[in-house]
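Marked as duplicate of an earlier ticket. Keeping the data here for the record.
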Amino acid sequence: MILYLDTSSLVKLYVEEDGSHDVRRLVDHAAVVTTSMVAYPEVRAALARRRRDRTLRPAHFATARRAFETDWPSYLAIQVTPAICREAGEYAERYRLRGFDAIHLACFAEAAGSAAGSAAGIEVQFSSFDDHLNRAARALARALGRRS
Protein backbone atom coordinates (compact mmCIF):
# COMPACT_ATOMS: atom_id res chain seq x y z
CA MET A 1 0.00 0.00 0.00
CA ILE A 2 1.06 3.57 -0.70
CA LEU A 3 -0.03 5.89 2.09
CA TYR A 4 -0.55 9.60 1.49
CA LEU A 5 -0.41 11.69 4.68
CA ASP A 6 -1.64 15.25 4.77
CA THR A 7 -0.17 17.51 7.43
CA SER A 8 -2.84 16.75 10.04
CA SER A 9 -1.88 13.06 9.88
CA LEU A 10 1.86 13.64 9.57
CA VAL A 11 1.97 15.76 12.74
CA LYS A 12 0.42 12.89 14.69
CA LEU A 13 3.60 10.90 14.15
CA TYR A 14 5.53 13.50 16.18
CA VAL A 15 2.99 14.78 18.70
CA GLU A 16 0.98 12.35 20.80
CA GLU A 17 -2.70 13.20 20.34
CA ASP A 18 -5.97 11.55 19.35
CA GLY A 19 -5.35 9.54 16.21
CA SER A 20 -1.58 9.14 16.64
CA HIS A 21 -1.86 5.38 17.17
CA ASP A 22 -4.04 5.02 14.05
CA VAL A 23 -1.56 6.92 11.87
CA ARG A 24 1.37 4.88 13.19
CA ARG A 25 -0.53 1.68 12.39
CA LEU A 26 -1.15 2.88 8.82
CA VAL A 27 2.50 3.85 8.40
CA ASP A 28 3.62 0.45 9.70
CA HIS A 29 1.56 -1.27 6.99
CA ALA A 30 2.59 1.02 4.14
CA ALA A 31 5.25 0.12 1.60
CA VAL A 32 5.65 3.82 0.78
CA VAL A 33 4.61 6.92 2.73
CA THR A 34 4.08 9.98 0.59
CA THR A 35 3.07 13.57 1.15
CA SER A 36 3.41 16.97 -0.49
CA MET A 37 6.47 19.20 -0.21
CA VAL A 38 4.16 21.76 1.44
CA ALA A 39 3.87 19.39 4.40
CA TYR A 40 7.43 20.21 5.46
CA PRO A 41 6.78 23.87 6.39
CA GLU A 42 3.30 23.01 7.59
CA VAL A 43 4.62 20.42 10.07
CA ARG A 44 7.38 22.73 11.25
CA ALA A 45 4.79 25.49 11.76
CA ALA A 46 2.46 23.12 13.64
CA LEU A 47 5.25 22.03 15.97
CA ALA A 48 6.34 25.63 16.57
CA ARG A 49 2.74 26.66 17.31
CA ARG A 50 2.45 23.90 19.89
CA ARG A 51 5.70 25.09 21.49
CA ARG A 52 4.44 28.71 21.59
CA ASP A 53 1.09 27.77 23.09
CA ARG A 54 2.89 25.45 25.52
CA THR A 55 1.11 22.26 24.51
CA LEU A 56 4.64 21.03 23.77
CA ARG A 57 7.32 21.71 26.35
CA PRO A 58 10.68 22.86 24.91
CA ALA A 59 12.29 19.43 25.34
CA HIS A 60 9.35 17.66 23.63
CA PHE A 61 9.40 20.25 20.84
CA ALA A 62 13.12 19.64 20.25
CA THR A 63 12.59 15.87 20.22
CA ALA A 64 9.63 16.11 17.82
CA ARG A 65 11.47 18.48 15.47
CA ARG A 66 14.59 16.28 15.47
CA ALA A 67 12.51 13.15 14.76
CA PHE A 68 10.68 14.89 11.93
CA GLU A 69 13.95 16.11 10.40
CA THR A 70 15.36 12.58 10.63
CA ASP A 71 12.26 11.01 9.05
CA TRP A 72 11.60 13.60 6.32
CA PRO A 73 14.02 12.05 3.75
CA SER A 74 12.21 8.71 4.09
CA TYR A 75 8.93 10.18 2.83
CA LEU A 76 8.24 10.38 -0.88
CA ALA A 77 7.60 14.13 -1.02
CA ILE A 78 5.73 15.14 -4.16
CA GLN A 79 6.99 18.34 -5.75
CA VAL A 80 4.47 21.14 -6.14
CA THR A 81 4.79 21.82 -9.84
CA PRO A 82 2.85 24.31 -11.98
CA ALA A 83 0.69 21.40 -13.20
CA ILE A 84 -0.08 20.31 -9.61
CA CYS A 85 -0.97 23.91 -8.74
CA ARG A 86 -3.39 24.15 -11.68
CA GLU A 87 -4.96 20.83 -10.72
CA ALA A 88 -5.19 22.02 -7.10
CA GLY A 89 -7.04 25.11 -8.32
CA GLU A 90 -9.58 22.87 -10.04
CA TYR A 91 -9.97 20.76 -6.90
CA ALA A 92 -10.34 23.84 -4.72
CA GLU A 93 -13.32 24.90 -6.81
CA ARG A 94 -14.82 21.45 -7.31
CA TYR A 95 -14.54 20.29 -3.69
CA ARG A 96 -14.67 23.69 -1.93
CA LEU A 97 -11.21 23.31 -0.43
CA ARG A 98 -8.70 25.72 1.07
CA GLY A 99 -5.52 26.22 -0.94
CA PHE A 100 -3.10 23.86 0.81
CA ASP A 101 -5.81 21.22 1.20
CA ALA A 102 -6.30 21.37 -2.56
CA ILE A 103 -2.54 20.99 -3.05
CA HIS A 104 -2.56 17.90 -0.81
CA LEU A 105 -5.43 16.48 -2.85
CA ALA A 106 -3.61 17.15 -6.14
CA CYS A 107 -0.47 15.49 -4.76
CA PHE A 108 -2.58 12.50 -3.69
CA ALA A 109 -3.96 12.32 -7.24
CA GLU A 110 -0.37 12.38 -8.53
CA ALA A 111 0.58 9.51 -6.22
CA ALA A 112 -2.51 7.54 -7.28
CA GLY A 113 -1.75 8.19 -10.94
CA SER A 114 1.85 7.06 -10.54
CA ALA A 115 0.75 3.89 -8.75
CA ALA A 116 -1.79 3.12 -11.47
CA GLY A 117 0.87 3.58 -14.13
CA SER A 118 3.51 1.47 -12.43
CA ALA A 119 1.72 -1.64 -11.19
CA ALA A 120 -1.82 -2.93 -11.11
CA GLY A 121 -3.45 -3.50 -7.78
CA ILE A 122 -1.44 -1.09 -5.65
CA GLU A 123 -3.73 0.58 -3.16
CA VAL A 124 -3.17 4.27 -2.50
CA GLN A 125 -4.73 5.36 0.78
CA PHE A 126 -5.32 8.96 1.88
CA SER A 127 -5.03 9.94 5.54
CA SER A 128 -6.24 13.22 6.99
CA PHE A 129 -7.99 14.35 10.14
CA ASP A 130 -10.05 16.89 8.20
CA ASP A 131 -13.47 15.39 7.43
CA HIS A 132 -14.12 17.73 4.50
CA LEU A 133 -10.78 16.86 2.90
CA ASN A 134 -11.38 13.14 3.48
CA ARG A 135 -14.73 13.39 1.68
CA ALA A 136 -13.03 15.16 -1.21
CA ALA A 137 -10.32 12.47 -1.35
CA ARG A 138 -12.94 9.70 -1.42
CA ALA A 139 -14.83 11.47 -4.21
CA LEU A 140 -11.62 11.99 -6.17
CA ALA A 141 -10.55 8.38 -5.65
CA ARG A 142 -13.89 7.21 -7.03
CA ALA A 143 -13.44 9.52 -10.02
CA LEU A 144 -9.93 8.16 -10.55
CA GLY A 145 -11.13 4.58 -10.06
CA ARG A 146 -8.89 4.10 -7.01
CA ARG A 147 -9.64 3.35 -3.38
CA SER A 148 -8.63 5.87 -0.66
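See parent ticket for discussion. Residues 2-144 form a domain with the Rossmann fold fold (CATH 3.40.50.1010).
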